[in-house]
Amino acid sequence: MTNPPSDLRNFFYTLFHPTLQQWVLFLIPAMTTYLLLCHRLRYNRLRRTTFHHTIDLHPERKMPLLTAFNIHNYLIELEFPLSFSAATTFALFKAYGIPSISSLLVHTNQLAGPPLASSKRYADTGALLLEAVLNEPGSARSIEAIARINYLHDRWRGKENGKGIRDEDMLYTLSLFALEPMKWVQKYEWRELSEVEINAVGLLWMYWGYALKVPFSLLPGYEKGWKNGVEWMEEMGAWSEAYEKRHMLPAESNAALADATVKILLWKTPKWMHGFGKRVFATVMEGRSRRLREAMLLVILNISPSPQSRREGRMHADAPS
Q: pTM of the entire structure?
């Protein structure tokens, strides 16, 4: 009878060696304890927030603004940093699928102009938004950022002939920043936002909306008010969806902004990878919004919309507000 190969003998010797057995007896309980601890601590903030602030959902009791800010802050910094960051970038990009928004930005030469100017505008927008959102409401840094945003917007609000910022577009843009992170978390993360967390996000963005002079009077529930942030988020979601169906149309201005924005997002990527990067970006966007893909992402892949779609987009952009 032939002996087993030496390699096989060494394997079984190592497997059943007393020293290895001792390590196995240690590692299995240690790994089990680690996984249980991770599971326990991973939901710790959610359980604590739900326990303390479920009462804030009652119509007669409103969650304090600072509490809403702290909940929103831990969602951004601790729970879902990647999804919130990606969703905010996507929200900014998605707004460019509305011809009345994109045509104004092209007209001002802010995002579709020379590369240096457009990248500066993109960086300035991100910096002001982060200053307003990541600092406590009422703090000097938050107030200064909001004041600067209002100053930039006021120069273009109230202008006629479709050459200014429309109230509907202001409300739609705010809805994207409020709603997209929740949607991304729901689709891509390990858990969804709780009702208490949605309430905090809604109350906070409602506050920022009032500070930025966004016209909430366009919402059906404006006269009677909203019971809490959850009801406001639901109404914003329904209004935003209906607005997209009516106004997100293909237009050359959408394409110009899409191309300029993707170039900014890919500036750190080697040129030979830009084609691949554009396809990855288009795939992600296609998974999020079919209407947005039809409005401008086909242009990113060098597939132009039909002439009829372009005419519809131009007519919509040129229509008076």
A: 0.83
